[in-house]
Amino acid sequence: IWAVRLGGFLLYRISKTGKDSRFDNIRDNFIAFGRFWLGQGLSVWVILLPALVAFTASSPNIAPLAWIGVVVWALGLALESAADWQKFTFNSLPANKGKWIQSGVWKYSRHPNYMGEMLVWIGLYLYAVSVLSLPLGIAVAVGPLFIISLLLFISGIPLLEKFADARWGTNAEYKKYKSRTSMLIPWPPKKT
After folding, report:
1. How many CB atoms lie within 10 A of CB 138?
2. Where are the alpha helices (DSSP H) in the chain?
3. Exposed, middle or buried, 22 (CB in 10 Å: 0-12/13-18/19+)?
4. What does the alpha-carbon distance between residue 149 and residue 145 come to, in Å, rounded to a whole number?
5. How far apart are CA 117 and CA 44, in angstroms?
6. Mean pLDDT of successive 10-residue segments in the chain (192 residues)?
7. Is 36 exposed, middle or buried (0-12, 13-18, 19+ CB in 10 A)?
8. What 3-state DSSP class applies to 149?
9. Rounded to an integer, what distance in angstroms lies between the CA atom of residue 44 and that of residue 96?
10. What's the rounded Cα separation, in Å, for the pair 159 and 152?
11. Helix (H, G, I), strand (E, B) or coil at 187
12. Which of 161, 176, 170, 169 is nearest to 110 (CA)?
């Protein structure tokens, strides 16, 4: 469900915009492009470890923790989907060219899509750990920890914050938005 949602959204977005600008610097370099896709494949495998192991369990026991995991997963998918769609719709309007989104879920978080992504994998882990033995359950925690680390410290939030600061960092309204809006967890804006 997650892959169909994300893949379908990206396909739709590319069909409307004509390209995926994230690949502008590597599209013409076979080695760099191949390295990117290989890294993506390896990342997905690591992130999916809890599910891959849990789905092979001989007798899945749907414990209360599993149901909590399903709810967390569904909330994450809904948040990520809403954030992606709202930002795409915002960016599609010519009047918004050169502006940042600060409406919808983006009013409450500067990166609600990443919060949703993290919840998806935390929820999947909670579901999976309910059917795994203790050592294996701890070992496959590498999946959600990997994606959370990636988004918080490496390729997600740090890159986008740097890009946004370079683009709008001198704009007083952007500074106000940034100071009052939670970076990750959707939360009512601070009073300024």
Report:
1. 11
2. 2-17, 30-54, 64-92, 112-129, 134-139, 142-149, 157-168, 172-180
3. exposed
4. 6
5. 13
6. 89 84 78 88 91 76 86 98 96 95 98 97 91 84 95 95 96 96 96 78
7. middle
8. helix
9. 33
10. 10
11. coil
12. 161
Tell me, what amino acid is at 75? L
User: Who's near 183: CB < 8 A, 6+ residues apart?
Assistant: 109, 110, 111, 157, 161
17: Cβ contacts below 8 Å, ≥ 6 apart: none
- Extract the tokens encoding 173: 């309204």
182 burial level (CB within 10 Å; 0-12, 13-18, 19+): middle
The amino acid sitting at 31 is I
3-state SS assignment for residue 98:
coil
Q: Which of 66, 36, 45 is nearest to 128 (CA)?
A: 66
Q: Which amino acid is at 38?
A: L
pTM recorded for the entire structure: 0.88
pLDDT of residue 83: 97
Q: What are phi and psi of 174, to 5 degrees?
A: -65, -45
